[in-house]
């Protein structure tokens, strides 16, 4: 079992580290040109965007989760799930929508506009992770703080925030990774970052090796952030009582504070969801039903299927890797899952090259076996020309979301439960299914929705690795919007939004149901 798990982990680790093989020989001419012209600008702009968006989403996402979890005010039940709605809009779509109507809105500097747009798109990461962590804090701790007449802010800083650090920083790290890897938004606002530099070096200068070598700079920055996050978590232990018998009581706000809370929660919904979707609906109404043909519905089904099945695969992998790391089967299995997070740091285009290179070698090996041993011909490109390549890329890139979220949840599970299961004679597999899975189920469902939407909106990897004539709503939307055919792209963008709304509503209703169960215990 340990050997099988180790081989399985290595299948995903090897492609991540195979990026190092593309570094040599180093393309000195490209590096000299970049270093003397734009490399410092790429790095500086990337860091400014990363730190700015990361800080804004951290403050806004955590504060929203705090309000929703610990306070009672009108429209709270609606706002609890509506706050996540901006996540269904890809940031580049928001950029196109507001730019096409810039005469009706305040004109902003391109840097400020990009920071604003990306903050609105990515703050749900921090909100979801924080909300889930806050919901699992024992109400006994909050009630004890109130008995000792501690202020709300002091309770937050001394109790709530320290207990939720793993989830909060995991969400913030994911935001930073998204910002550093974003291409559509920064390219639209003509901001030179490492992500745009990779594409320009690849397509403009015609150097794939140069593009991969630049991506190593981006990869190194994100890897450093991930390892800092892991180091900080390693120094602390976070356990929660899983058998709660105290009821959670949200503090009721007075009229003025209720109005302020409603405004604070509805602002991102209005700016990043209501206005954009109104524009998309208006555009769709204007073009009529001529685009709702057979191809349109085929693209919808294809997108839903690949997103749903890909998210399931990533959830299984993330849970398996985090559980193997948690129970420490052996030193190697404990170390390797930590590198899974690095897959999310690789830009989609570069990941596609790596996946194609590895699967091409596997295709050649299978072709050799089929022709020389089994005497079977015409077996070509089983992996590289099929949907398997997409699943492989999604697994490498998005399993990090499931791994980080489930690992944060498992760190709050007391190790006494694991040892109790061993005393009762449970195998590792039964312990995972019957004990750990129910305790981290809400975190896994949260991860599922994030991965589902990420795959639904994924562009570079899907465009490069897709089989022939395989289009998704994201590809169709981007192609039309990038040609400034926003009205024609509106129906496809609406599909992304509608599927996202259903998925987000489901996860939020599940979390509310889980909270009600805790109250009844």
What can you see in these coordinates?
- A two-stranded parallel ribbon has the order 1-2.
- 76% of the residues lie in helices and 1% in strands.
- It is mainly alpha-helical.
- It has a single domain, classed as MetI-like (MetI-like fold), CATH 1.10.3720.10.
- The model is unreliable at 242-246 (pLDDT under 50).
Tags for this entry?
single chain, 521 residues, mainly alpha, MetI-like fold, two-stranded parallel sheet, 1% strand, globular
Write the layout of secondary structure elements.
Blueprint: H1 2-17, H2 28-37, H3 39-70, E1 71-72, H4 76-82, H5 91-100, H6 110-135, H7 139-147, H8 152-181, H9 184-188, H10 194-204, H11 208-234, E2 251-252, H12 255-287, H13 294-327, H14 331-335, H15 348-372, H16 387-410, H17 415-423, H18 428-457, H19 460-465, H20 473-482, H21 486-520
Helix pairs in contact: 3-6, 3-8, 3-10, 5-6, 6-8, 6-18, 7-8, 8-11, 8-16, 10-11, 12-21, 13-16, 13-18, 15-16, 16-18, 18-21, 20-21
- DSSP, total strands: 2
Q: Any idea what the shape is? A: globular
Terminus-to-terminus distance: 37 Å
| Rg measurement, Å | 24 Å
Domain module count: 1
Average residue pLDDT:
78
CATH superfamily: MetI-like
Number of helices: 21
CATH class: Mainly Alpha
Summarize this, please?
With 521 residues, the chain is mainly α. The chain has 21 helices and two strands. It has a single domain, classed as MetI-like (MetI-like fold), CATH 1.10.3720.
């Amino acid at each position: 079992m340990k050997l099988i798990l180790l081989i399985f982990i290595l299948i995903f680790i090897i492609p991540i580290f195979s990026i190092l093989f593309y570094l040599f020989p180093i393309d000195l001419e490209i590096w000299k040109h970049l270093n003397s012209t734009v490399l410092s600008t790429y790095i500086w702009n990337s860091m400014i965007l990363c730190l700015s968006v990361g800080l804004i989403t951290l403050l806004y996402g955590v504060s929203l989760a705090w309000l929703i979890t610990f306070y009672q005010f009108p429209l709270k039940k609606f706002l609890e799930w509506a706050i996540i709605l901006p996540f269904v809009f890809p940031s580049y779509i928001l950029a196109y929508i507001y730019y096409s109507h810039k005469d009706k809105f305040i004109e902003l500097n391109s840097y400020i506009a990009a920071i604003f747009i990306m903050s609105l798109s990515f703050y749900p990461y921090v909100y979801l992770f924080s909300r889930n962590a806050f919901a699992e804090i024992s109400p006994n701790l909050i009630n004890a703080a109130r008995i000792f007449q501690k202020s709300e802010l002091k309770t937050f800083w001394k109790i709530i925030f320290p207990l939720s650090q793993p989830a909060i920083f995991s969400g913030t790290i994911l935001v930073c990774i998204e910002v550093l890897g974003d291409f559509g938004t920064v390219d639209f606002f003509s901001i030179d970052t490492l992500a745009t530099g990779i594409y320009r070096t690849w397509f403009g200068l015609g150097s794939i090796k140069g593009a991969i070598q630049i991506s190593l700079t981006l990869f190194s920055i994100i890897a450093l952030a991930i390892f800092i996050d892991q180091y900080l978590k390693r120094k602390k232990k976070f356990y929660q009582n899983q058998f709660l018998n105290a009821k959670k009581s949200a503090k009721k706000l007075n009229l003025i504070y209720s109005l302020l809370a409603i405004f604070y929660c509805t602002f991102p919904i209005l700016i990043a969801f209501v206005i954009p979707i109104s524009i998309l609906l208006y555009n769709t109404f204007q073009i009529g039903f001529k685009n709702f043909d057979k191809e349109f519905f085929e693209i919808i089904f294809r997108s839903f299927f690949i997103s749903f099945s890909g998210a399931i695969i990533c959830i299984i992998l993330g849970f398996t890797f985090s559980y193997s790391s948690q129970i420490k089967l052996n030193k190697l299995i404990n170390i390797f899952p930590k590198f899974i997070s690095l897959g999310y740091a690789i830009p989609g285009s570069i990941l596609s090259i790596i996946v194609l290179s590895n699967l091409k070698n596997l295709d050649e090996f299978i072709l050799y076996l089929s022709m020389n041993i089994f005497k079977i011909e015409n077996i070509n490109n089983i992996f590289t020309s099929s949907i398997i390549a997409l699943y492989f890329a999604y697994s490498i890139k998005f399993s990090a979301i499931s791994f980080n979220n489930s690992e944060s949840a498992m760190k709050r599970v007391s190790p006494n439960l694991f040892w109790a299961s061993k005393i009762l004679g449970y195998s590792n597999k039964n312990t995972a299914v019957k004990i750990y899975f129910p305790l981290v189920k809400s975190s896994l469902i949260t991860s599922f929705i994030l991965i589902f939407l990420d795959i639904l909106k994924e562009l570079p990897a899907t465009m490069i690795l897709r089989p022939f004539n395989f289009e998704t709503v994201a590809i169709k939307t981007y192609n039309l919007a990038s040609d400034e055919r926003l009205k024609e792209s509106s129906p496809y963008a609406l599909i992304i939004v509608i599927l996202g709304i259903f998925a987000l509503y489901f996860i939020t209703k599940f979390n509310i149901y889980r909270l009600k169960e805790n109250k009844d215990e």
